[in-house]
Amino acid sequence: MVNTTNIILCVSTIVALSAIIVLNITPYIFPAPLSTTLDHLSSATSITITGAFGPESLAFDPTGSGPYVGVADGRVLKWSSLSNSWVDFAFTSSHRDECTRPFAPELEHVCGRPLGLRFEKKSGNLYIADAYFGLHVVGPEGGLSTKVATEAEGQPFYFTNDMDIDEDEDVIYFTDSSSTFRRRHFMLSILTGDTTGRFMKYDKSTKNVTVLLRNLAFPNGVSLSADRSFVLVAETRPCRILRYWLTGPNSGKTDTFAELPGYPDNIRRNEKGEFWVGLHAKKTRLANWLLKNPWVGKSLLPKLPLSFRQLHVLFVGGHHGIAVKLSTDGRVVEILEDRRGEKVRYISEVEEKDEKLWIGSVLMPSIWVYDLH
Protein backbone atom coordinates (compact mmCIF):
# COMPACT_ATOMS: atom_id res chain seq x y z
CA MET A 1 0.00 0.00 0.00
CA VAL A 2 1.32 3.40 -0.96
CA ASN A 3 2.01 5.78 1.93
CA THR A 4 0.00 8.89 1.00
CA THR A 5 1.70 11.06 3.62
CA ASN A 6 5.15 10.32 2.18
CA ILE A 7 3.98 11.11 -1.34
CA ILE A 8 2.51 14.44 -0.24
CA LEU A 9 5.70 15.28 1.66
CA CYS A 10 7.88 14.39 -1.33
CA VAL A 11 5.79 16.41 -3.77
CA SER A 12 5.69 19.39 -1.40
CA THR A 13 9.46 19.30 -1.02
CA ILE A 14 9.99 19.21 -4.79
CA VAL A 15 7.58 22.12 -5.30
CA ALA A 16 9.27 24.17 -2.57
CA LEU A 17 12.75 23.53 -3.96
CA SER A 18 11.58 24.34 -7.48
CA ALA A 19 10.13 27.64 -6.27
CA ILE A 20 13.38 28.59 -4.58
CA ILE A 21 15.38 27.73 -7.67
CA VAL A 22 13.07 29.55 -10.08
CA LEU A 23 12.46 32.63 -7.96
CA ASN A 24 15.84 33.41 -6.51
CA ILE A 25 18.71 31.08 -7.34
CA THR A 26 21.45 33.67 -7.83
CA PRO A 27 22.07 34.72 -4.20
CA TYR A 28 22.40 31.07 -3.16
CA ILE A 29 24.46 29.57 -5.97
CA PHE A 30 26.78 32.44 -6.87
CA PRO A 31 29.19 34.12 -4.43
CA ALA A 32 28.59 37.68 -3.35
CA PRO A 33 31.12 40.30 -4.50
CA LEU A 34 33.91 41.02 -2.03
CA SER A 35 34.40 44.60 -0.90
CA THR A 36 37.71 46.46 -1.19
CA THR A 37 39.12 44.03 -3.73
CA LEU A 38 41.09 44.64 -6.90
CA ASP A 39 39.70 42.84 -9.93
CA HIS A 40 43.10 42.78 -11.63
CA LEU A 41 44.11 39.14 -12.04
CA SER A 42 42.53 38.83 -15.48
CA SER A 43 45.56 40.80 -16.73
CA ALA A 44 47.93 38.01 -15.65
CA THR A 45 50.01 36.21 -18.26
CA SER A 46 49.28 32.52 -18.81
CA ILE A 47 51.95 29.87 -19.18
CA THR A 48 50.29 26.73 -20.55
CA ILE A 49 51.49 23.32 -19.43
CA THR A 50 51.05 21.30 -22.60
CA GLY A 51 50.02 17.71 -21.99
CA ALA A 52 49.64 18.17 -18.23
CA PHE A 53 47.10 19.38 -15.71
CA GLY A 54 46.78 20.78 -12.20
CA PRO A 55 50.00 22.60 -11.16
CA GLU A 56 48.94 22.82 -7.51
CA SER A 57 52.22 24.07 -6.04
CA LEU A 58 55.15 26.08 -7.38
CA ALA A 59 58.74 26.29 -6.15
CA PHE A 60 61.98 27.93 -7.22
CA ASP A 61 65.29 26.22 -6.52
CA PRO A 62 68.08 27.90 -4.49
CA THR A 63 69.60 29.36 -7.68
CA GLY A 64 66.28 31.03 -8.57
CA SER A 65 65.58 28.69 -11.47
CA GLY A 66 62.10 27.43 -12.18
CA PRO A 67 59.34 27.40 -11.31
CA TYR A 68 58.91 23.70 -10.63
CA VAL A 69 55.34 22.38 -10.50
CA GLY A 70 53.70 19.09 -9.57
CA VAL A 71 51.05 17.86 -12.01
CA ALA A 72 48.21 15.34 -11.99
CA ASP A 73 50.03 12.49 -13.75
CA GLY A 74 52.62 12.23 -10.98
CA ARG A 75 55.45 14.26 -12.46
CA VAL A 76 57.28 17.34 -11.25
CA LEU A 77 58.05 19.65 -14.16
CA LYS A 78 60.58 22.46 -14.44
CA TRP A 79 60.21 25.60 -16.52
CA SER A 80 63.28 25.97 -18.73
CA SER A 81 64.00 29.58 -19.67
CA LEU A 82 66.48 28.36 -22.28
CA SER A 83 63.96 26.33 -24.26
CA ASN A 84 60.96 28.37 -23.09
CA SER A 85 59.18 25.15 -22.25
CA TRP A 86 58.43 22.65 -19.49
CA VAL A 87 60.78 19.70 -19.01
CA ASP A 88 60.47 16.61 -16.84
CA PHE A 89 62.35 16.92 -13.56
CA ALA A 90 61.13 14.29 -11.10
CA PHE A 91 58.42 11.74 -10.36
CA THR A 92 57.21 10.01 -7.19
CA SER A 93 56.33 6.56 -8.62
CA SER A 94 58.40 4.14 -10.68
CA HIS A 95 55.23 2.49 -12.01
CA ARG A 96 54.51 4.85 -14.87
CA ASP A 97 53.42 2.58 -17.74
CA GLU A 98 49.80 3.66 -17.36
CA CYS A 99 50.55 7.30 -16.49
CA THR A 100 50.03 8.69 -19.98
CA ARG A 101 46.94 10.88 -19.58
CA PRO A 102 47.06 14.43 -18.19
CA PHE A 103 44.10 13.78 -15.89
CA ALA A 104 43.22 10.28 -14.66
CA PRO A 105 42.10 10.43 -11.00
CA GLU A 106 41.52 6.68 -10.91
CA LEU A 107 45.29 6.17 -11.42
CA GLU A 108 46.57 8.68 -8.86
CA HIS A 109 47.33 5.92 -6.35
CA VAL A 110 49.58 4.31 -8.97
CA CYS A 111 51.18 7.36 -10.58
CA GLY A 112 51.33 9.56 -7.48
CA ARG A 113 50.02 13.10 -7.08
CA PRO A 114 52.66 15.69 -6.08
CA LEU A 115 51.03 18.53 -4.16
CA GLY A 116 53.16 20.78 -1.90
CA LEU A 117 56.72 21.47 -3.10
CA ARG A 118 59.56 23.01 -1.05
CA PHE A 119 63.28 23.31 -1.76
CA GLU A 120 65.79 22.98 1.04
CA LYS A 121 68.17 25.85 0.38
CA LYS A 122 71.29 24.39 2.00
CA SER A 123 71.15 21.10 0.09
CA GLY A 124 69.20 21.97 -3.05
CA ASN A 125 66.95 18.96 -2.41
CA LEU A 126 63.30 19.20 -3.37
CA TYR A 127 60.81 17.89 -0.82
CA ILE A 128 57.48 16.71 -2.17
CA ALA A 129 54.19 16.15 -0.36
CA ASP A 130 52.63 13.42 -2.47
CA ALA A 131 48.93 12.90 -1.71
CA TYR A 132 49.28 9.11 -1.89
CA PHE A 133 52.93 8.34 -1.09
CA GLY A 134 53.62 10.73 1.79
CA LEU A 135 56.71 12.90 2.17
CA HIS A 136 59.34 12.34 -0.53
CA VAL A 137 62.62 13.98 -1.49
CA VAL A 138 64.65 14.20 -4.69
CA GLY A 139 68.12 15.61 -5.25
CA PRO A 140 69.06 18.69 -7.31
CA GLU A 141 69.40 16.56 -10.46
CA GLY A 142 65.86 15.21 -10.22
CA GLY A 143 64.71 11.71 -11.13
CA LEU A 144 62.82 9.23 -8.97
CA SER A 145 62.13 10.60 -5.49
CA THR A 146 62.73 8.59 -2.33
CA LYS A 147 60.47 8.06 0.66
CA VAL A 148 60.96 10.24 3.75
CA ALA A 149 57.90 9.44 5.92
CA THR A 150 54.59 7.67 5.35
CA GLU A 151 52.92 7.27 8.77
CA ALA A 152 52.52 8.64 12.27
CA GLU A 153 51.48 6.77 15.40
CA GLY A 154 51.01 3.66 13.30
CA GLN A 155 48.46 5.39 11.06
CA PRO A 156 49.52 5.80 7.41
CA PHE A 157 49.23 9.20 5.77
CA TYR A 158 46.16 9.16 3.55
CA PHE A 159 46.15 12.58 1.90
CA THR A 160 49.52 14.33 2.34
CA ASN A 161 49.03 17.89 1.19
CA ASP A 162 51.51 20.69 1.94
CA MET A 163 54.62 21.46 3.99
CA ASP A 164 57.23 23.98 5.05
CA ILE A 165 60.81 23.41 6.18
CA ASP A 166 62.55 24.87 9.22
CA GLU A 167 66.16 24.51 8.10
CA ASP A 168 67.56 25.75 11.41
CA GLU A 169 65.84 22.97 13.34
CA ASP A 170 65.89 20.40 10.49
CA VAL A 171 62.14 19.95 10.87
CA ILE A 172 59.43 19.62 8.23
CA TYR A 173 55.90 20.73 9.13
CA PHE A 174 53.18 19.15 6.99
CA THR A 175 49.49 18.30 6.70
CA ASP A 176 47.55 15.11 6.07
CA SER A 177 44.15 16.39 4.97
CA SER A 178 42.11 13.30 5.79
CA SER A 179 42.44 9.85 7.30
CA THR A 180 39.26 8.76 5.51
CA PHE A 181 39.18 10.28 2.02
CA ARG A 182 41.77 10.15 -0.73
CA ARG A 183 42.69 13.24 -2.72
CA ARG A 184 40.47 12.35 -5.66
CA HIS A 185 37.49 12.46 -3.26
CA PHE A 186 38.35 15.83 -1.71
CA MET A 187 34.88 17.26 -2.35
CA LEU A 188 33.29 14.50 -0.28
CA SER A 189 35.80 15.11 2.50
CA ILE A 190 34.60 18.71 2.69
CA LEU A 191 30.87 18.08 2.21
CA THR A 192 30.56 15.21 4.71
CA GLY A 193 32.08 17.21 7.56
CA ASP A 194 35.18 15.02 7.76
CA THR A 195 37.47 16.10 10.64
CA THR A 196 40.14 13.40 10.49
CA GLY A 197 42.94 15.65 9.23
CA ARG A 198 46.28 16.01 11.02
CA PHE A 199 49.09 18.55 11.26
CA MET A 200 52.51 17.02 11.95
CA LYS A 201 56.23 17.55 12.07
CA TYR A 202 59.04 15.34 10.82
CA ASP A 203 62.39 15.55 12.60
CA LYS A 204 65.12 14.86 10.05
CA SER A 205 67.72 13.94 12.69
CA THR A 206 65.61 11.36 14.53
CA LYS A 207 63.32 10.49 11.58
CA ASN A 208 60.38 10.69 13.99
CA VAL A 209 56.94 12.05 13.08
CA THR A 210 54.98 13.87 15.79
CA VAL A 211 51.28 14.73 15.53
CA LEU A 212 50.84 18.35 16.63
CA LEU A 213 47.14 18.83 15.84
CA ARG A 214 44.41 16.33 15.05
CA ASN A 215 40.67 16.34 14.28
CA LEU A 216 41.10 19.10 11.70
CA ALA A 217 38.62 19.89 8.91
CA PHE A 218 40.71 19.48 5.76
CA PRO A 219 44.07 20.94 6.88
CA ASN A 220 45.86 22.22 3.81
CA GLY A 221 48.59 24.84 3.28
CA VAL A 222 51.52 25.32 5.67
CA SER A 223 53.89 28.28 6.17
CA LEU A 224 56.48 29.09 8.82
CA SER A 225 56.72 32.67 10.08
CA ALA A 226 59.86 34.66 9.26
CA ASP A 227 61.05 34.58 12.88
CA ARG A 228 60.11 30.90 13.23
CA SER A 229 57.93 31.66 16.27
CA PHE A 230 54.81 30.08 14.73
CA VAL A 231 53.61 28.07 11.79
CA LEU A 232 50.36 28.65 9.90
CA VAL A 233 47.97 25.91 8.81
CA ALA A 234 45.09 26.49 6.39
CA GLU A 235 41.92 24.73 7.49
CA THR A 236 39.94 24.70 4.27
CA ARG A 237 36.43 23.70 5.31
CA PRO A 238 35.91 26.43 7.97
CA CYS A 239 37.71 29.01 5.78
CA ARG A 240 40.35 29.97 8.31
CA ILE A 241 44.07 30.01 9.01
CA LEU A 242 45.27 28.50 12.27
CA ARG A 243 48.43 29.65 14.06
CA TYR A 244 50.40 27.01 15.95
CA TRP A 245 52.89 28.64 18.31
CA LEU A 246 56.39 27.16 18.35
CA THR A 247 58.07 29.49 20.86
CA GLY A 248 57.14 31.94 23.63
CA PRO A 249 54.50 31.72 26.37
CA ASN A 250 51.94 30.21 23.96
CA SER A 251 54.26 27.47 22.70
CA GLY A 252 52.23 24.40 21.72
CA LYS A 253 48.96 26.34 21.66
CA THR A 254 46.77 27.19 18.69
CA ASP A 255 44.66 30.21 17.83
CA THR A 256 42.88 31.57 14.77
CA PHE A 257 45.23 33.75 12.72
CA ALA A 258 42.70 34.85 10.06
CA GLU A 259 39.12 34.28 8.92
CA LEU A 260 38.82 34.26 5.13
CA PRO A 261 36.02 34.92 2.60
CA GLY A 262 36.64 31.59 0.88
CA TYR A 263 38.35 28.21 0.97
CA PRO A 264 42.12 28.46 1.50
CA ASP A 265 44.63 26.21 -0.19
CA ASN A 266 48.39 26.83 0.11
CA ILE A 267 50.10 29.61 2.08
CA ARG A 268 53.40 31.18 1.01
CA ARG A 269 55.43 33.83 2.85
CA ASN A 270 57.02 36.74 0.97
CA GLU A 271 60.30 38.50 1.77
CA LYS A 272 58.51 41.00 4.03
CA GLY A 273 57.13 38.22 6.21
CA GLU A 274 53.58 38.64 4.86
CA PHE A 275 51.57 35.67 3.66
CA TRP A 276 49.84 35.03 0.35
CA VAL A 277 46.90 32.63 0.49
CA GLY A 278 45.32 31.13 -2.60
CA LEU A 279 41.55 30.69 -2.28
CA HIS A 280 40.05 27.84 -4.25
CA ALA A 281 36.70 29.62 -4.28
CA LYS A 282 34.59 32.15 -2.40
CA LYS A 283 31.81 31.25 0.00
CA THR A 284 28.25 30.93 -1.28
CA ARG A 285 24.98 30.61 0.65
CA LEU A 286 24.40 27.16 -0.78
CA ALA A 287 27.90 26.02 0.19
CA ASN A 288 27.42 27.39 3.71
CA TRP A 289 24.14 25.51 4.01
CA LEU A 290 25.72 22.28 2.78
CA LEU A 291 28.61 22.62 5.25
CA LYS A 292 26.20 23.21 8.14
CA ASN A 293 24.22 20.12 7.12
CA PRO A 294 26.80 17.39 6.51
CA TRP A 295 24.04 14.76 6.39
CA VAL A 296 23.37 15.99 2.84
CA GLY A 297 26.93 15.15 1.81
CA LYS A 298 26.84 11.84 3.65
CA SER A 299 23.43 10.59 2.57
CA LEU A 300 22.04 12.51 -0.40
CA LEU A 301 24.81 13.79 -2.66
CA PRO A 302 26.49 10.38 -3.23
CA LYS A 303 23.17 9.07 -4.59
CA LEU A 304 22.66 11.91 -7.08
CA PRO A 305 23.86 11.41 -10.69
CA LEU A 306 26.41 14.24 -10.44
CA SER A 307 29.90 14.11 -11.91
CA PHE A 308 32.78 15.61 -9.95
CA ARG A 309 32.70 18.64 -12.24
CA GLN A 310 28.97 19.20 -11.68
CA LEU A 311 29.29 18.78 -7.92
CA HIS A 312 32.25 21.15 -7.84
CA VAL A 313 30.52 23.90 -9.83
CA LEU A 314 27.42 23.54 -7.66
CA PHE A 315 29.55 24.06 -4.55
CA VAL A 316 31.81 26.92 -5.71
CA GLY A 317 29.23 28.81 -7.80
CA GLY A 318 31.15 29.38 -11.00
CA HIS A 319 34.65 30.25 -12.09
CA HIS A 320 36.77 32.80 -10.27
CA GLY A 321 40.25 33.36 -8.89
CA ILE A 322 41.12 34.96 -5.54
CA ALA A 323 44.44 35.70 -3.84
CA VAL A 324 44.60 37.17 -0.33
CA LYS A 325 47.62 38.80 1.29
CA LEU A 326 47.80 38.71 5.08
CA SER A 327 50.00 40.83 7.33
CA THR A 328 52.38 39.30 9.86
CA ASP A 329 49.60 39.50 12.45
CA GLY A 330 46.79 38.13 10.29
CA ARG A 331 45.12 41.27 8.93
CA VAL A 332 43.88 41.18 5.35
CA VAL A 333 46.17 43.57 3.50
CA GLU A 334 45.03 43.01 -0.07
CA ILE A 335 42.64 40.87 -2.11
CA LEU A 336 43.24 40.33 -5.82
CA GLU A 337 40.58 38.74 -8.00
CA ASP A 338 39.62 37.58 -11.42
CA ARG A 339 35.92 37.83 -10.57
CA ARG A 340 34.59 36.26 -13.76
CA GLY A 341 37.38 33.74 -14.16
CA GLU A 342 38.31 35.19 -17.53
CA LYS A 343 41.83 33.87 -17.13
CA VAL A 344 42.68 32.88 -13.55
CA ARG A 345 40.56 30.20 -11.85
CA TYR A 346 40.67 28.05 -8.71
CA ILE A 347 43.91 29.38 -7.23
CA SER A 348 45.86 26.86 -5.18
CA GLU A 349 49.05 28.81 -4.50
CA VAL A 350 50.55 32.28 -4.84
CA GLU A 351 54.33 32.70 -4.78
CA GLU A 352 55.75 36.24 -4.73
CA LYS A 353 59.11 36.56 -6.48
CA ASP A 354 60.88 39.45 -8.23
CA GLU A 355 57.87 41.80 -8.00
CA LYS A 356 55.62 39.18 -9.59
CA LEU A 357 53.03 36.74 -8.36
CA TRP A 358 53.38 33.20 -9.65
CA ILE A 359 49.99 31.50 -9.40
CA GLY A 360 49.11 27.80 -9.52
CA SER A 361 45.82 25.92 -9.77
CA VAL A 362 44.94 22.32 -8.96
CA LEU A 363 42.21 22.31 -11.63
CA MET A 364 43.74 24.11 -14.62
CA PRO A 365 46.36 23.26 -17.29
CA SER A 366 48.45 26.39 -16.75
CA ILE A 367 50.06 28.75 -14.28
CA TRP A 368 49.85 32.55 -14.34
CA VAL A 369 52.25 35.41 -13.74
CA TYR A 370 50.89 38.69 -12.40
CA ASP A 371 53.08 41.81 -12.40
CA LEU A 372 52.73 43.70 -9.13
CA HIS A 373 53.78 47.00 -10.73
From TrEMBL:
It is found in: Vacuole. Residues 161-248 form the Strictosidine synthase conserved region domain. Its main location: other. It holds the Pfam family Str_synth. One of its GO terms (molecular function) is hydrolase activity. Keywords: Glycoprotein, Membrane, Signal, Transmembrane, Transmembrane helix, Vacuole. The chain crosses the membrane at residues 7-30. GO terms for cellular component: endomembrane system; vacuole. It comes from the Eukaryota. Belongs to the strictosidine synthase family. This is Strictosidine synthase conserved region domain-containing protein. It comes from Saponaria officinalis.
